[in-house]
Amino acid sequence: MPDAPSDTVLSAPPAPARAGGELFTEERSADVVAASFDNTPDPRLRQVLTSLVHHLHAFVKEVELTEEEWGVAIDFLTRTGQTCSDVRQEFILLSDVLGVSMLVETINHRTGGTSTESTVLGPFHMVESPERELGDNIALDGKGTPCLVSGQVTGPDGEPLAGASVDVWQTNEDGFYDVQQPGLQPPGNLRGLFSTDDEGRFWFRSVVPRYYPIPDDGPVGKLLAATGRHPNRPAHLHFIAAAPGYRPVTTHVFVADSPYLDSDAVFGVKESLVRDVPEVDDPARAAEVGLSNPFRTLTFDLTLLRANQAPAAQPADGAPGGSTS
Length: 325
Ligand SMILES: [Fe+2]
Hints:
Largest sheet: 5 strands, mixed
Helix content: 10-25%
Bound molecules: fe (ii) ion
Number of domains: 2
Order of helices and strands: HHHHHEEEEEHEEEEEHEE
CATH superfamily of the largest domain: Aromatic compound dioxygenase
CATH topology of the largest domain: Protocatechuate 3,4-Dioxygenase, subunit A
CATH class of the largest domain: Mainly Beta
Strand content: 15-25%
CATH architecture of the largest domain: Sandwich
Number of helices: 7
Number of strands: 12
């Protein structure tokens, strides 16, 4: 094959036709990328991805993210994933400290003031609570300030919900869940799955929980430290109450005299969920309920909406953000 003469001018091949695809520019970046999802068969997935791209690009443009900062963010998310294990969920923690968990929970469980308010599930409901009988003591190691916990589960018209399930988990007096102290706490310590009696009532013996720091030895803890935030959550008991035909509620009850009630690291506190936990100094009553004297009492009634009850309307000032481009 002879070489082409040096003066041969090869004409450029025609540009390949693009099927309507717009090239990326800074100004149009979000629309260009969002358009790549136009053929997503699932309309909800298309909506979510399109909105995500618009908000993400607007954020990058607003702060003019540097390449170094982008690298730090990628490294942070990588370490967040690598910190997850069977007994630790660092991504839920990240969502919690950014308030996203509470926002998702609140949007999806609006009550309109007619039922028990929800709050975050949190990262420690990672084992099935053992089934217990009403009146059982869930403080298997017998440590802590004794506390009688009781309440009633009802529907929106006050009808008692017999046989409702009440799933409870809490920390010990040192502020740790059983899964955080294997070997120190017996498995299932301070957890219980109860079934309400004919009047929708439940009661059990436990100890007063303590405030505690969320796990702060990982990437999320470093984020809190870098921003001058403490990692603590005020003392609380977790509840999931459920009954056939009703909407389950995932919530906490907060101890009124706990520190950090006004600065929960995961924004979980709602005024309607705070309860006094008064002391009872009455040997006869203590003997009757099977606790040492004195003991403290916590009463928490839960009201569930019916399964077919429409969520309350969105607050007027909570209009959806939509596209920011
Ligand atoms: Fe908790």
